[in-house]
Design goal:
With 77 residues, the chain is mainly beta. The chain is built from one helix and seven strands, in the order E-E-E-E-E-E-E-H. The chain has a single domain, classed as OB fold (Dihydrolipoamide Acetyltransferase, E2P), CATH 2.40.50. Strand 4 and strand 5 form a beta hairpin.
């Protein structure tokens, strides 16, 4: 299980960019869960858990990649 930190909230307030200590980036999409910059989340490859709020989330991973690819993906949404 990897721990990530929310680093960026997209202007649509549905997509969030999170990074881990290895600088691996993920873009997650949330429907009803609340995230803020700085929130700690864990991701085991299937499920996201908000460690800051200590609750399960409905978020799903939309994209994984390096900084350049994540930036390109965000521009496309």
């Amino acid at each position: 299980m990897m721990m990530y930190t929310i680093r960026y909230v997209h202007r649509n307030n549905i997509n969030y960019v999170a990074s881990n200590i290895d600088r691996h980036l993920i873009i997650l999409k949330s429907i009803d869960s609340e995230f803020m910059m700085g929130h700690q989340i864990s991701y085991d490859g299937k499920k996201l858990f908000n460690l800051t709020l200590n609750e399960d989330t409905d978020a799903v991973i939309e994209f994984e990649g390096n900084e350049k690819k994540v930036y390109e993906y965000l521009l496309s949404i």
